[in-house]
Amino acid sequence: MTFFSRRKEDPRAPWNNDEKTVNEGSVDDGLAIPPCDIWHDDAPAQQTVTGELPPAPQDPIPPQDGSQCWAFMGAVGGVGTTTLAVQMAYELAKTQASKTPRGQRNTDPKVCLIDLDFEASGIVHHLDVQAGLSQDDLAGDPARIDSLYIQSLLSHHSSGMSVLAAPNMINGNAGVNPLTVLALLDAVCDAFPYVILDVPRHWQPWTAPALMGADFLGLVTELSIPSLHMTRAKCDQLSDMLGSQSSCHIIMNKFERRAFKSTLRLSDAETALQRTVLSTLCMDPDVTREASNCGTPVGHVRTDSRYAKDSRKLLELMTNKVSTDRQNINKYNTVAA
Ligand SMILES: Nc1ncnc2c1ncn2[C@@H]1O[C@H](COP(=O)(O)OP(=O)(O)OP(=O)(O)O)[C@@H](O)[C@H]1O
Ligand SMILES: [Mg+2]
After folding, report:
1. Are 161 and 93 in contact (CB under 8 A)?
2. What is the CA(285)–ligand 1 centre distance, in A?
3. Do residues 212 and 25 make contact, with C-beta atoms less than 8 angstroms apart?
4. 266 class by beta-carbon count within 10 Å (0-12 exposed, 13-18 middle, 19+ buried)
5. Ligand 1 pocket by C-beta < 6 Å: which residues?
6. Ligand 1: which of 288, 290, 313 to mutate, most ligand atoms within 8 Å of CB?
7. In angstroms, rounded to a whole number, what is the distance separating the alpha carbons of residues 61 and 333?
8. Is 285 exposed, middle or buried (0-12, 13-18, 19+ CB in 10 A)?
9. 219/242 Cα distance (integer angstroms)
10. pLDDT tens sequence across 138-175
11. pLDDT in tens, 57-110
C-alpha cells in the first residue's frame, strides 16, 4: 500500500506515529484529528491506522522533481476557494497544453483537480461534471487503488482538466476511510504532473497529510475584520501543525482596489495578520457568477477579465515559489551528501 508516497520520505510531511498526521488527537484541540475509527466504524480492518503508517523519514531528503501538488483552503466559508481552485487548474492546464511541441497531439491531461470535501463538493457544480467517486470507493480498501482504478473514477472537463470528486451527500465525509483518500492522492500524483486540491475548511482526518504533502498551501480569505481574525488564527495553528517549511500563503480574494474612507486597506490586513499577503484577486461578482452558471472556469468564459488576469499573476508567483523551494531542497541534498 502506498501513502501519498511522493512525499513519504520528505521531512515536511512527517509520517511517524508521533506526528500529527492520521493519528489520534485530542478532541479539545481545535485542529486536532479525531480518532480514525470513529469516522468509519464499518470500514474493514482499518482500526489500527497508526500502526500501519510507514516509518519515519530518513535522510537525505529525496530530490524534488516529481509531480507538483497545490492546495487551496478557505480561511472562512464562501470566500471563493472553489472558484479559485477551478480557475488555477484551468490556467495551469492551458499553460501546459501550450508547451506541447508542435505536431504532437495534446491528448494527455496534465492537471487533475481534486475536491477533498466528500460531503459538499463544489467542484462538480462549478464545472458541471458528473462525480466519479462513490461512497463505496471512499470507504473501500486502500490496497485496491492503482492507476487503472483511478482512471475509472476521473471526470473530464472540456477545458482540458481532469476532476476527482464525490457527489454531495449529507454526512458524506463520515464514512470515508482516510487511508483510502491518501492512496487516491498517491495514485493521482503518480498519474498527473500537476494536482490541485480544494481542501474543505472543516478539518478531516485526511486534511493534515494532504496539506503536508502539498508543495504549496494557499489560504484564501477576504478583507473583513471577522475573516482576518479567523485567518490569523488558522495560519498560526497551521504553522504549528505543519512546521515552518510548509507555511501557508495568504491569498486575498474579493479585493477592492478603490479605497473608501471606511474600508480596510491591504496594509491594515497585513498588520492584523502579522504576515504579508501573497496575492490579491479583485472583486468581480459578475464574471465569477457567469462562470459558475456556465459550469466553466472564469478564464474560459472571460479570458480578459480582471479576475482571470489576477489569477494568472498568482499562477506565476506560485510556480516561481514552488520551483525555488524545490531548488533549495535539491541544493541542500547536494551539500548534505
Ligand atoms: N473574486 C470574486 N469576486 C466576487 N465574487 C466572487 C469572487 N470569487 C468568488 N466569488 C463568489 O463567491 C461565492 C462563493 O464562491 P465559492 O463557492 O468559490 O466559495 P468557497 O470558498 O469555495 O465556498 P465554501 O466555503 O462553501 O466551499 C460564489 O457566488 C462566487 O461566484
Ligand atoms: Mg468551496
Report:
1. yes
2. 9
3. no
4. middle
5. 74, 77-83, 122, 201, 253-254, 281, 283-285, 288-289, 292, 307
6. 288
7. 6
8. exposed
9. 14
10. 999 999 999 999 999 999 998 889 999 999 999 999 99
11. 444 444 456 789 999 999 999 999 999 999 999 999 998 887 766 666 556 789
What is the pTM (predicted TM-score) of this model? 0.83
- Backbone φ and ψ for 122, nearest 5 degrees, come out as -90, -30
**First vs last C-alpha separation in the chain:** 29
Distance 182 CA to ligand 2 centre (A): 20
- Counting atoms of ligand 1 from 1, which one is nearest the CA of 78? 23
> What is the 82 CA–ligand 2 centroid distance (Å)?
4
Question: Would you call 25 exposed, middle or buried from its count of C-beta atoms within 10 A (0-12, 13-18, 19+)?
Answer: middle
**Position 108, amino acid:** D
Spacing, Cα 34 to ligand 1 middle (Å): 29
Angle between helix axes 285-294 and 306-336 (nearest 10 degrees) is 80
